[in-house]
Amino acid sequence: MNTAYQQLRSIFARISRFNHLSAIAHWDMQTMMSHEGSQARSEALAEIDVLCHQLLCDPKVGVLLESASKETLEGADEANLTEMRNTYRRAVVLPDALIEARSLATGKCGFAWRTQRPANDWVGFASNLHEVVKLTREEAKIRAEATGVSRYDALLDLYEPGMRSEELDRIFGDLKTWLPDLLRRVVAKQAPNPPLPLQGPFDPGKQRELALKVMRILGFNFSAGRLDSSAHPFSGGVPQDVRITTRYDETSFMPALFATIHETGHGRYEQNLPQAWRDQPAGLARSMGIHESQSLMFEMQVARSTPFLQMLHPLVVTAFGQSPALTEANFIALAQRARPGLIRVDADEISYPLHVILRYEIEKALIEGQIEVDDIPALWNQKMQDYLGIGTEGNYQNGCMQDIHWTQGAFGYFPTYTLGAMYAAQLFQAALRALPSLNGEISEENLQGLSGWLEENIWSKGSLHRTDKLMTDATGEALNTKHFRAHLERRYL
Amino acid sequence: MNTAYQQLRSIFARISRFNHLSAIAHWDMQTMMSHEGSQARSEALAEIDVLCHQLLCDPKVGVLLESASKETLEGADEANLTEMRNTYRRAVVLPDALIEARSLATGKCGFAWRTQRPANDWVGFASNLHEVVKLTREEAKIRAEATGVSRYDALLDLYEPGMRSEELDRIFGDLKTWLPDLLRRVVAKQAPNPPLPLQGPFDPGKQRELALKVMRILGFNFSAGRLDSSAHPFSGGVPQDVRITTRYDETSFMPALFATIHETGHGRYEQNLPQAWRDQPAGLARSMGIHESQSLMFEMQVARSTPFLQMLHPLVVTAFGQSPALTEANFIALAQRARPGLIRVDADEISYPLHVILRYEIEKALIEGQIEVDDIPALWNQKMQDYLGIGTEGNYQNGCMQDIHWTQGAFGYFPTYTLGAMYAAQLFQAALRALPSLNGEISEENLQGLSGWLEENIWSKGSLHRTDKLMTDATGEALNTKHFRAHLERRYL
Ligand SMILES: [Zn+2]
Ligand SMILES: [Zn+2]
């Protein structure tokens, strides 16, 4: 007879096989699917979601978890059991009726948003968002009661397990004391010498070739993954077959190039998650913040550094020919330019956290019931003025309607972007200490040292440790904002 | 309370949603999947296969089928219930142990075949095939006992429901009286003027452009499907999103072009299956023979006809430039060339049925226990000599080891290729009677008349009628070999 833990392993392995098909079908939907396939695909994906939910929430799983907790397990198995338990509790706590209502409301809100945003239709959007917020508050209440943390923290924990808003308040509070000022100083410093703008068009075929070349330099394993294009860049698929995407803009090669580098970071993490745990919860990426730290490690710490840009420059010239905007100095200036703007996804690494803090403050107050949906536009405008010096009054589409996250009920997600940026800075500093010649290696297309360090300290750990232990083991301390600040000051001042 | 039939509809709709994911993942495996994704993909597909088998074989389904047979149903629902019943009976009759043993044996045989075939290793291959045949005989015995037909017929019925070997013996017996002689006469007629061979290389990008252009002419719906490339051309995906593939050979554009046309025929059938029945058994393609009739309708009846080739010729010249081998006359001669050869998949439409009859005779005797695996090579050589005038002694790789079908236990499949060719000839004659200007339309890139006729008579019928009724409704008679003979004589003599 198998132990309870062994039986749980089989159940979770089975769910992971269904998740494999779901992941591939999701990737296909964004990259390959024909227009008329959309309805049937959504139904098929919903069906397998329901199946996985049922398999996970089977009362038998609860009983087995109970029994397994009395069995003697090795360290890694113990960690895996913990992840199983967390996964189970998160899934089982919500009543089916709420899951269904949320799925309907987010589906409706997200679908309408696609046309409401370009139409700047806040009133129409708000009425849908109201329902999503109402249901997400119910969800947060239930999760909070089950876990004993605040409502917002109960949602935050879904994306960044172990993180609490108390800590975020401290971290983001610190950033707010120096980041707006740093941004102003960098903008002032860069103002006298604005870089020449790129002169397109840039052939998408050549952009793709360059992207593939850079992925190879960054160590992406093309026997276990591929690059395609989609409306929004993402990283999907399964660890054995990672599917990253980018999007080609003929007027500038920079967005596709840096999006590819970003997604390559996500992809390398997935490709190098611990092989022995691939079909188990312990084999999954640790958190959304750690995931983002790997993409930002490649995009921000490595690829926008001067040594990397210097190495990259000749490849860019080979791809697109010489031009005044493509001198080495101008190319570097374009890649390291800081400019406050309205749109989060277009933001440079200095202003990006301010977009995140703004959203964090609004969504936390919203979930905790301190504000209502109708309060969002005024707050948005005010905080944009305060943090970035740009107002958004009446401009909903490039203000509070710009992101898809809230339409999907993903409150608590935004902080992980900036946690990722800070984890990345701290990890890169630790890697530099371990590998003193790292910057030289990077300038010679050699990412092996860094890859080895990341594999040893992050990738191969999957979810075997909690985030704080992962960070402490890797860097000698828990998350510390000073590394991010030092990084920005070093690069931009 | 839902009726039993309504409950069955829900169960079959759910299975069809899982089949959607399986179909996309299968397509992905042949077109997109990374090398290292293979193991995890096989496991995921096996898992969903097991799930669908369990859902279908649930004793509840048997009880519901029993109850539903006492409910009053409309004609189409009655047909759907019949298809449900057949699907259930076919699935439920095999013991799980046999399914598992068969899956292991065919997996091993097919995997080894990939290297044994190029190595001409008959002895190694035979030892694996022996096990596959043994298990397929067991399967045939069980199916025969359950359905009251002969063992071979019980397998044949899986691919061509309603067809019996008695009828095949009659049909193939007829073909054997005139086809070898017709082939000899056509070869003799073409011998004095052999066409000039094509001079490559032919750029795959240009081949793809031409293939897409021809798919558009043939009416393929690109909002509900796409063209990609794979090692072996196939048609997959789902009716809402049909995935066809081709394979580009730089030395000749003809294989990719005609493979694309062939798969477009399969694809158009799938795209135009009855919308109202898409998630039900009645909405599936009628049989493998009818499926092949649609691909051969497009490839053989339409695309290799002189009017179509005349219309196609300028497109080919536009794609690849003028050359002595690309005069209109030479191009047509290349597309209509008849030459007996060793390889079934390379055969022209006159010799193709002889390859099929040979395989039919051998596999029927094998399943009925009249011969053994070790008897195959000698029989193959003998029949190749008799039907096509070419021996295969000692040449296993291009003789009895050339096809994948038997390695997969797919005994009873081969006849559907030639049934398809004969259905196609008969259907095209009926379409010509209904559309007297059809050949003129084809020469003007106008396939609308034919498409409308096929949609009305075949595509929109799905599995709502039995094959014999489908053919009689469409053509006024059951399958009659005279149309195929008339077609070949008209085109080639
Ligand atoms: Zn990211
Ligand atoms: Zn075919």
Architecture blueprint of SSEs:
Two copies of one chain form a homodimer.
Chain A: H1 4-31, H2 38-57, H3 59-68, H4 75-92, H5 96-116, H6 122-147, H7 151-159, H8 165-190, H9 204-217, E1 225-229, E2 235-238, E3 241-246, H10 254-271, H11 288-303, H12 306-320, H13 328-335, H14 352-367, H15 376-388, H16 415-434, H17 438-443, H18 448-457, H19 467-475, H20 482-492
The structure holds zinc ion (2 copies).
Task: Please describe the structure with a list of short key phrases separated by commas or semicolons.
mainly alpha; 3 strands; hydrolase (chains A, B); 493 residues; Neurolysin, domain 3; Metal-dependent carboxypeptidase (chains A, B); zinc ion binding (chains A, B); 20 helices; homodimer; protease (chains A, B); globular; binds zinc ion
Describe the structure.
The structure is a homodimer of 493-residue chains. Chain A has 493 residues and is mainly alpha-helical. Chain A folds into 2 domains: 4-161, no CATH class; 167-492, Neurolysin, domain 3 (Orthogonal Bundle), CATH 1.10.1370. Chain A is 64% helix and 3% strand. Chain A has helices spanning 4-31, 38-57, 59-68, 75-92, 96-116, 122-147, 151-159, 165-190, 204-217, 254-271, 288-303, 306-320, 328-335, 352-367, 376-388, 415-434, 438-443, 448-457, 467-475, 482-492, and strands at residues 225-229, 235-238, 241-246. The first copy, chain A, has a 3-stranded mixed sheet, with helices on both faces. In chain A, a hairpin with a 2-residue loop joins strand 2 (235-238) and strand 3. The longest helix of chain A has 28 residues, at 4-31. Chain A is globular and about 70 Å long. The mean pLDDT of chain A is 97. Chains A and B meet through helix 1 and helix 2 of A and helix 1 and helix 2 of B. The structure holds zinc ion (2 copies). Residues 262, 266, 292, 295 of chain B line the site of one zinc ion.
